[in-house]
Amino acid sequence: MVTSTLRTCAVVALAILVIAPPGSAGQDVEPGSELRVWLVTAGPGDAVWERYGHNALRVLDTRTGYDVSFNWGIFSFGEPVQFIVRFLQGRMLYMMAPFDTQAMFASYAGDNREVIQQELDLTPAEKLELLALGQINAQPENREYFYQYFLDNCSTRVRDLLDLVLGGQLHAAFGSEQTGTSYRWHTRRLTQVDPFIYAGMDALLGTPTDAELTVWEEMFLPLTLRDAVRDFDVRRGDGSVRPLVLAEEVTVPATRTAEETAPPAWLLRFLLAGLVTGVVFASLSLAQVRESTFRRRFVLSVAAAWSTLFGVLGLILVGLLFTDHTFSTWNENLFLANPLLLIVGVALPLSGVRPAWEARARRVAGFCAGIAMLGLIWQVVPASAHQNAIFFALLLPAHVGLAWGLYALGRAGSEGRPGPQG
Comparing C-alpha atoms, which of 343, 392, 358, 181 is closest to residue 284? Predict the structure, then answer.
């Protein structure tokens, strides 16, 4: 949010502009009346970080031709190591910068991203304050901020600045209006174009993302802010009420398919994948698989890869608990993506060298399946608010199938059945 110090500086700058506006000598014009202000909203793009859309505040000085768009969505891969470290810590540095408006429009046109402009009916004093705040925020000592994908991003910065110059009227109107959606709901909706990104991001989000949002909170999405101000009325000091938006236009048209309006219903897909994986693992109990060297090694190799993948995911989920990724806390996918699975991932390949490793893999796999079952009970009680049914559908059958398959394999070995044949 804009700090009180920043606003104090803006008041000083505003006073200077009001006392001696350039070119105002001999003119009886209210300072700020030469300014026009737009909320600029760009639709989704191709990259993951573009799926949520983007926005900026445009200010045009009709007297001088000064035309700038204040943009809070700048980040850089310039120092890859530092970027990765900050990303893992949840302390990504973003930056605000004033852009040449026409160059910005050209960039969006080149990316086939729709741009809508909404001219705002602000008073001259409000326009001056917004311009002063933007210019001060763009100074090197003020322009950087720690990005929080839901709480402090390009759109919330625009929202907060508008709310500030409007005396808190946006928050008063939208701060308690419920939407029936959540951060997870929108993340699923906007990432469904790439199922792997969809699954990866959903797995990393914890219970805090499942709380219902107000319209104010949902304005972390630029398109929600655009739609909310479209019909918003501002109450003025003289008691009058006027629409905030004077006019709206599509400045840059696009041929891109419109974004999805709801998340996909993929529970059955995840369940089918989980059942197939579970059946493959459980096939170790069949003599046709167990007694064939090729089939047995194939299933064990798949099981080792599966265990390693989700063991690594479990390590990541544990690591996130010690970072500033606040929306990854209370992540009940740890019932399923257990870091102990890494032991299984290592033990299964080694079991071909030393049979004792097979027993270790069997015990740990059984323990992980038990933890997964406890997680299911926690889900059904219901004691959980975590909307992660798709991961129970995907991973629980695989846990049970692997535990059963390794148990049957071990029992067959202890009973002295024939060894693998070529």
Answer: 358
- For the chain, the straight-line distance linking the first and the last C-alpha, in angstroms and rounded, comes to 68
Element (H, E) at 250: strand 245-252
State which residues of the chain have pLDDT below 70.
1-28, 76-84, 87, 415-422
Q: Nearest Cα to 408, choosing from 281, 305, 225, 257? A: 281
What is the C-alpha to C-alpha distance for residues 50 and 55, in angstroms, rounded to an integer? Answer: 11
**Within 10 A of 307 (CB to CB), how many other CB atoms are there?**
28
Rounded CA separation 194/46 (Å) = 10
Structure tokens at 90: 């949840």
**Residue 414 φ/ψ, nearest 5 degrees:** -70, -25
Q: What is the pLDDT of residue 421?
A: 45
pLDDT at 412: 82
Q: Residue type for 114, please?
A: E
Domains in the chain: boundaries = 4-17+31-179+214-252, 267-414
Tokens 């102990």 label which residue?
Answer: 340
Helices (H) and strands (E) in the chain, counts: 16, 9
CA distance 263 to 181: 10
CB neighbours of residue 11 within 10 Å = 13
What is the per-residue pLDDT for 15? 39
Q: How far apart are CA 104 and CA 57, in angstroms?
A: 12
Element (H, E) at 35: strand 35-42
Please state the pTM of the whole predicted model.
Answer: 0.88
Q: How many Å apart are CA 127 and CA 383, to the nearest integer?
A: 50
Query: How many other CB atoms are found less than 10 A from the CB of residue 76?
Result: 10
